[in-house]
Predict the 3D structure of the following.
Amino acid sequence: MNRFVKPLSVAEIKQTNDEDIDFSDIPELDETFWRDAEVVHPDLTEQITMRVKRSVLDYFRAPGKGYQTRINRVLESYVRAQRQSQ
């Protein structure tokens, strides 16, 4: 069994047989692992065009990368709160 010291290139990965992969350091997934697991279905995003006040956009952009995710989280929490109050 070969131990790799450096990451494999794409070509090297394609040439590797499944039988040559060492899984010995990966634990088995037993009942304990799956006991608290739950299925999570992704809520896919959709690209849209939306007009937002500059001050709001500046606020969400200020911390850096990820401003669209932050805006989406705020909108999601608003939707959850509205559904709970109905």
Notes: Helices lie at 10-15, 31-34, 54-61, 67-85. Residues 67-85 form the longest helix (19 residues). The chain has four helices and no strands.
